[in-house]
Amino acid sequence: MEGVPNHEEEKNEGEQDRPLAPQIWVASLADYNAGRLYGRWLDAAQDVAELEEAITVMLAASPTPGAEEWSIFDSEDFGGLRIAEQESLETVSLMGRGLIEHGAAFAAWADIAGRDAETLARFEEGYLGRWDSLTAYAEQLFDDMGYEQELAKVIPDGLRAYVRFDAEGFGRDLHLSGDISYADTLDGGVWIFDDRY
Predict the structure, then answer these.
(1) Residues 127, 182 contacting (CB under 8 angstroms)
(2) What are the φ/ψ torsions at residue 189 (nearest 5 degrees)?
(3) Which of 26, 117, 179, 185 has its C-alpha lying 20 to 30 A from 69's C-alpha?
(4) Strands 39-43 and 23-28: what pairing?
(5) Alpha carbon of 151 to those of 135, 146, 148, 154: distances in Å?
(6) Intervals of CATH 3.10.20.480 along the chain
(7) Is the Cα dihedral 165, 171, 173, 179 positive or negative?
């Protein structure tokens, strides 16, 4: 938003694995309505009570006497997630703490699965890891399930060179059937999520 103090430095795409520090810029609506931008950057990884206290302190110091209403005017370092002006502090806190603990994959999970508290809490059950590609994940899953060994048992040696597993198709079908979701990483890989969670 124009006029909102932005202290975020430019980030390179290669910084995907760096620790995130999600923040929100909360502003006094009384000041905004009076033609002033007054607010503070707050650490989003605090619990709800701490965020509420920080907002109360910000409003008490407002140049507009009696300022009580606030809104989120900006956010940064949420791994690409957009934070709404009226986003609940519970959601902000859950997302902030999840990003600190799990990194940018958590932002991808929130974008795919949703932002409600129950869904965000299931990240660890739903996250299947970072892979070079959907095909690489499908190849590993096929091998982990023991199918590669089973094929080796039933396919004669003379035919093995002609039989290939379509890992790309298997990965695509896992996604299209709703078994998994994925999100692209900035460095060309993918994060894979189990859609059952």
Answers:
(1) no
(2) -95, -165
(3) 117
(4) antiparallel
(5) 19, 9, 5, 5
(6) 21-121
(7) positive
Please say whether the beta carbons of 133 and 124 come within 8 A: no
Topology of 21-121 in CATH?
A: Ubiquitin-like (UB roll) (3.10.20)
CA distances from 18 to 13, 94, 100, 187 (A): 11, 19, 10, 13
CA distance linking residue 191 with residue 197, whole number of Å: 15
Count Cβ atoms below 10 Å from residue 65 Cβ, excluding itself: 6
**Per-residue pLDDT at 13 exceeds 80:** no
Residue 158 has phi, psi (to 5 degrees) of -70, -20
Say how far apart CA 118 and CA 136 lie, in whole Å: 30
**pTM of structure:** 0.78
For the stretch 112-150, pLDDT in tens is 998 888 999 999 999 999 999 999 999 999 999 998 888
Q: Which of 6, 196, 187, 5 is nearest to 104 (CA)?
A: 187
